[in-house]
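Hi there. Long-time user, first ticket. I'm pasting a complex I've been working with (about 538 residues overall). I'd like to know whether the download I got is complete or cut off, because the file seemed smaller than I expected. Thanks.
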Amino acid sequence: QVTSPSGEGTDAVVILEKTPFQEEKVLDLLKKHTKLELQMHNDIYSTYHLYPPPELSEIKTTVVYPATEKHLQKYLRQEVHLIRETWEDYKNITLPFIQSQSFSIQWVYNILEKKAEADRIIHENPDPCDGFVLVPDFKWNQNQLDDLYLIALVHRREVKSLRDLTAEHLPLLRNILQEGKEAVAKRFGVPGSQLRIYLHYQPSYYHLHVHFTALGYDAPGSSVERAHLLTDVIDNLAMDSTYYQKRALTFALRADELLLKKFQEAGRV
Amino acid sequence: QVTSPSGEGTDAVVILEKTPFQEEKVLDLLKKHTKLELQMHNDIYSTYHLYPPPELSEIKTTVVYPATEKHLQKYLRQEVHLIRETWEDYKNITLPFIQSQSFSIQWVYNILEKKAEADRIIHENPDPCDGFVLVPDFKWNQNQLDDLYLIALVHRREVKSLRDLTAEHLPLLRNILQEGKEAVAKRFGVPGSQLRIYLHYQPSYYHLHVHFTALGYDAPGSSVERAHLLTDVIDNLAMDSTYYQKRALTFALRADELLLKKFQEAGRV
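Hi, the file is complete. Here it is re-exported in full:
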């Protein structure tokens, strides 16, 4: 994705996107007027530069013109930085930052209290301490199982993130793992062995929740620098109740995120 | 990604990948012999089909020839299953399976012995025990930093995977982390805070190696069910030398993979 301002007084946003291959055109691509240049050869492996004819390499182009400042900002690339947060960093930088923010999580409470999305609930364990509600994530339209995405929201309200978890929360976490898998299998026919079940750190809101996504779906936020498998979290806590109050945790922050500024001010980036 | 067998008795795998845009070529793309076809117009928004000249729409092509049945299977689309492998599973199922296979890693030895790709080496620590070679991964064409991908291959040959690691390997792993980051910063100007540095489990070949990818790049195999951050691996081993001979590890296997069959036969799936 590329953004380029026009030079003529008024700005434009131009978005260029390479589109997926179309299966029925692949044979043409390998035959038709295609220039091939050897780049590297080692044993049975070789790599080439292939230069396809224009009609086989369409680029999807979107133009916003005239574009306002807001349009320009929306499409500008943000640099990301990896943070390795020790427990001391959490106490001194991250926790005060979370507490100073007033992220509204009213929408979470609305779901837990059945004031919103009550008809969307897939499963509930009503226990106030070890219970949770399982709902489809906003990002999933439920039209196909390929990008299945559900969220388990815990009933208890004082657990902000992974950093707050101890062995005390094992019954809750095991309920989510076990009942969540069963509910998804029952409702959607997707077995537990085809689910990626994980927490985010940092999460996007500080009320404990667990992500359920289709294993074959390259879900945003499922990469190693953000996702923590629930099974691993359970094993870590079973091994050491204070695991998440000891260990350094890695996550990425975009250049415009306030938390990054806090780490920079503390000389930790 | 497309796979196509040749029709001539011996099979080949052909992988076609569209590569990221190169920033310095975007202006050419918008000017030079580029056919533009209006598709949709609404207020300030419009979309086009853009047909670029061949030299501006390179497709990265990888050929495996001759390809074995195993190579063909590797690239065909398959259902995936999540496995939670205990240490007993590793000893009783995975290790015997690895030992029974004869997947050639001659290409790794070729690199370590400078018989191939010697001119591509970015950095080397020649120590036979704690040293390694850093090379660009086959998947990266080195034209742009967006999809930067390098591999550190260790010189010692008896370490198959994460499962073999103990505190004994900490000097090696710390060298890879430290020197790898420095070498990438020096050669490519990408700081360590913008690198995702990790191991795969299961790896695709059983000679210890570490992946370096651009943090902003959604690299294949960087998701939580396969990737293990090198910093986490180091912390785990520093905490407990036998961590990886104790812990259950999660990974996905495609339906056609022999190892899945072994887990099924053992009643573990």
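A couple of notes from our side: The longest strand of chain A covers residues 35-42. Chain A has a mean pLDDT of 90.
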